[in-house]
Design goal:
alpha/beta, nine-stranded mixed sheet, two-stranded parallel sheet, 11 helices
């Protein structure tokens, strides 16, 4: 057994144990965030036409500020922090941020477009303690919609296969902006051939809402879902409704079990509902977590944001939601609550 295979196996089983603990604790207690997406930089080196999560000018969030946000998430008992963007690899101190997540006992993940990966950067991410990495690949050949193509990224995938010791998931996509939906099947097969896990996502509009698939895309979706049974796709059964264009009834726990922390340090429901509730993380309290846990979101039935729906599965069997979102001004809620005081 080579050294890289041994290191990969050790990290895999350590991470898997932590994931089992996360799931067990999440099932036992609904009073802590399971997953937080943390944005260290809004800028991206690409400009995919369907994406509304980037700009081409923002500066990176200072490391000290990111550390404070991670510490705050730790106070809430957050299980996973996934670094996203923009393009997180543009942050000059990204590995320090990952180390801080790990030092706080939190599972560390990242979503990247993969363009900036080199062997040296992969080894640096290994050393920092990264546990999960996801890349979405939109097509086989780059086009005017997206440059996140298999042709461009295949050498990066091979580097990951040869040198990464963290877990890697490749997400292929289907949806109306995609010119060649059969590309998703090619991407999924390549991912599995390299030993990665594979998922498939359905592109949403700029509010995270449903864009139903045509008959051909639904067939491809079913094939790719079947291929990815050993990955997190086994928790994506809600996507069957999304693929058919049907509303999905579920209890969205965004703002509670799932937190989206933007580059300004505000808590939002998700990347597609920025502005709700838009409360600074340092002012967010356990009362806010409880409030949003019991709040029914009007955008939920047509939502395609898979990470939020996966987290919600932990609580799908308990605690019906008895409040309606967007009816109470955010400012009123902030004024009613007292921020948790730092123990120090």
């Amino acid at each position: 057994m080579s050294l890289i295979v041994l290191r990969r196996s050790i990290r895999f089983w350590r991470t898997r144990f932590r994931e089992w603990w996360m799931i067990g604790w999440g099932l036992l207690s609904p009073h802590h965030p399971v997953l937080a997406h943390l944005i260290p930089i809004r800028r991206c080196n690409l400009s995919c036409t369907y994406c509304n999560e980037f700009d081409d000018f923002s500066k990176p969030v200072p490391k000290a500020e990111l550390f404070r946000r991670i510490d705050r998430l730790k106070e809430f008992g957050t299980s996973i922090v996934t670094i996203s963007g923009g393009e997180p690899l543009l942050h000059p101190q990204l590995e320090d941020v990952i180390r801080h997540i790990r030092k706080r006992g939190i599972i560390a993940g990242m979503i990247t477009n993969g363009y900036l990966l080199t062997r040296e950067r992969i080894e640096s991410l290994n050393a920092a303690g990264l546990e999960h990495l996801q890349i979405s690949i939109d097509n086989v050949m780059p086009d005017e919609v997206s440059k996140k193509s298999l042709k461009v990224l295949d050498k990066k995938l091979q580097l990951l296969a040869d040198h990464a010791i963290f877990q890697i998931n490749i997400n292929s996509v289907l949806g109306s902006p995609v010119h060649h939906p059969e590309d998703a099947l090619v991407v999924a097969r390549r991912a599995l051939g390299l030993g990665f896990t594979s998922t498939v996502g359905i592109l949403h509009d700029h509010e995270g809402q449903l864009q139903p698939l045509g008959e051909k895309q639904q067939s491809l979706f079913t094939q790719i879902m079947a291929m990815g049974r050993r990955s997190y796709s086994r928790f994506n059964y809600f996507q069957k409704d999304v693929a058919r264009g049907a509303a999905h009834e579920w209890r969205c726990r965004a703002g509670s079990r799932y937190l989206y922390i933007c580059e300004d340090g505000l808590v939002h429901y998700c990347s597609q509902q920025r502005g709700y509730p838009a409360i600074p993380l340092e002012q967010y309290t356990r009362e806010h977590l409880e409030h949003e846990y019991l709040t029914k979101k009007s955008c939920a039935p047509l939502c395609t944001v898979s990470c939020v729906q996966q987290v919600a599965l932990l609580d799908s069997w308990r605690d019906p939601q008895n409040r309606e979102a967007f009816r109470k001004p955010v400012g009123d809620l902030v004024q009613l609550q007292t921020p948790i005081q730092d123990e120090n």
